[in-house]
Every structure is written in structure tokens, then in C-alpha cells.
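Box 3.1 A note on notation
Throughout this textbook, protein chains are presented in two layers. The first layer is the amino acid sequence; the second is a C-alpha cell string describing backbone geometry. Keep the layers aligned when reading.
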Amino acid sequence: MKKDLSARLAAGELDGQLLPLYGHGRLAAAKERCSRLLDSFSQQFGRPATAFFSAPGRTELGGNHTDHQHGRVLAASVDMDVLAAAAPNDSGVIRILSQGYPPVEVDLGQLEPVPGERNSSAALVRGIAARFVQLGRSAGSGLDACLVSDVPGGSGLSSSAAYEILVGAMLNSLFAGGFDAVELAQIGQWAENEYFGKPCGLMDQTACSVGGVVAIDFADPAAPVVERIDLDLHAAGYALCILDSGADHGDLTGEYAAITDELRAVSGCFGKSVLRDVPEADFLAALPALRKRAGDRAVLRAMHFYAENDRAAAQAMTLKGRDFEGFLRLAAASGRSSALYLQNVVPTGQTANQELMLTIALAERILGGRGAVRVHGGGFGGTAQAFVPLDMLEDFKARIQAVLGAGSCHVLNVRPVGGVMIG
């Protein structure tokens, strides 16, 4: 008779699956976290869970706002994750209890968008299940899940994408969906676009789903080219830090949508839907007319795209060639371009409070020309990314937190595994 999940966890039988996710230093804490989650599941649902699922957050290393233009990106999954204990329930309903959030219930008999559900977790769950069915697979007979997450919301580490990949992994594994990692990423993006209502690209979901460091080319979004790249930050002498600026994490969907709308206005002048299909030489030749038709900010944002698209490819090459100093120079250039041309550091019209710009300036001042700092993720609010020499790490962290507050500097590791079932 097969041991239940709790007994297998206690006996160390799951250690080999947990180690790649959390490392030796965090294994004991990870097992305790899993044990607490099993207790919560049995208390809430009156029976034991049958499997764990984990999906990581992600960090963008290069390619800021290029994915929705079918461009190139460089990203990595990190060792913060969304963790679930789950089991099928045969009720036709998906029930998810996430620590600190309202419960989610989605009836699999109703997979059309529900009015008033946009911008909610239920919309993501319903959208993912609907996409499974649209693609000819089963969304299952219902499941119960208890979730905990240490991916901070609004952190630029893509807690929403991690949630999407987790839900997709549960449906895929428990009900034999048969989708691969990239297909699950596409399903998550579709749900976020069509049901949640956010016009995101595909980078976040792909990085969370595939795992490790990935260079992705979205020239054909239906079949993105994904290349895994080895990266040992500690061997290179650096730590990866995500800095919480303390900015209001309110609804920034309008800011993100404005970027895609303005870039679409530029590409539309050439009869194209994305800038990847417009040669840069044609764009530059048409600048006088583009300024009149699309506006200067749109033109500047397009300039960022062309440079950043090339830069993401160059960053991948530096990592493959073990040229980390070259990578850092390109990362710093990405940050400058994002601030000056893409203009996604300070929300539109906001001048009194500029938390993210201050965070970037502070980190640059502390580093004193070493390492690199850049805006992280979507921008406007949230976080900055810093590559910090290991010999400066403790001082850097202390000085950042003296200004931004305790817990504002997260030191992360690259996780080699994407969304997985454990058990």
C-alpha cells in the first residue's frame, strides 16, 4: 500500500524533488512549509491531499517590454514560489484556498467569462480551464487546493504568472492534459489576456513554466524559440537582489496598456500589428510622419524596443560566453533605456512621489560603478533589480533597507525547475 503524502514527506522520500527547488540550505524549512500546508488541506477539505505543486516567480534579466511586440527576452525562474497541496474532488468545481486571499470557486460547467470577475483569481482559473477545453483537452472533474506563496504581489516577480502556471500544472498533471511547459505558458497568457483583462506578453509565463535561465524569441508567438542557458551567479561573484521601492501597487493596467497601445500606433502606420514586423530602417526613415501620427512618446518607446530587442540577444550571448561583465554593461544600458525612452519608471503625471526612481538612484550610488541596476518587470511601481558584488552584499542590503525599510531587499537564487508536481 502506497504511503500517504505526509508519511512520504516525513520519511524524506520527497527530498530529491524538493532539493532542486529550494536547495540544501532551505530544505528543512521547505519540508515544514509542506507539512503545514498538508494540515491546512485536511482541516479545510476533510481528507488528505494527494500531491504538491510548485510554480516559481520569475525575474526579467533583459528585454523590458519586448515580448508583446514579438521580441526577444532573457528571463529566469527564482527560488520564491507558489506552493499548493491538492487533490481531485469529482464535484465539477475547482476550489482554491490561498492564504491571505478570499476563496476561489469555479464551476467547470460554466467556462464562459463571468461579468464582474475580471481582474480576479477566479477569472484566471476559469480562463485556464476554458482554454484546456478549447484545445481539446479535459479540464478535469474538479479539484481542491490549498496555496501559500512567498512571491510578493506587485514585486515584479510575476506572482500572477506563477499562479497561472500552478493552476495549469495541477489540471495538466491530475487530469492528464498532456501540455508541455511552453503550451502551459501560452494557456496562462491567454487566460490573463482574455479573462483577467490584462494585455500581457508571454515572457512571464514562459519563464515560470520552463524554469532556469531562458532566452526566448517570440517572433512566432505560437511557437516561441526557448533556449536554456547555464548561469551560476555566485561563481561569477554576484548576488541578484530585488528591491521593493515601496511604491503604491495599485492598478497599473492602464499604464501597461498605454505602452502596447502606443507601440501598436507606430506599427500600425506600416500596416503591421507589432514592431518586430517593421524593419528599424523603415521606422527611422519615417520618423517625421510618425511623430505627427503617433506622438513623441510612442516614437521614443519604439526606439527603446528596437535597442532592447537587440540587447536581449546580446545579453544571452554574453552569458553563453561566460562574459558576465559584458552582461552587466548591457543590463545597465537596459535600465537607462527603460527610464529614458520606454518611460516606465515614473507613472504618468506623477512627480511628487518617485519611489522607484529613487530606489534606482540609491542603489547606483551605493554600488559606486560596480554591478548594475535596472527597473524590474513592468515598471511604474514595484521593484528594481540589482546585481551586487558578493563582497558588497551585506553592506548594500543594510544601506538599502535603512532607507526603504526592513525586508525591502530580497536576495534571490535562480531556480533550475519551472512548474512541477511533487509527490
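The domain at 5-229+416-422 is CATH 3.30.230.10 (Ribosomal Protein S5; domain 2). The chain has a mean pLDDT of 93.
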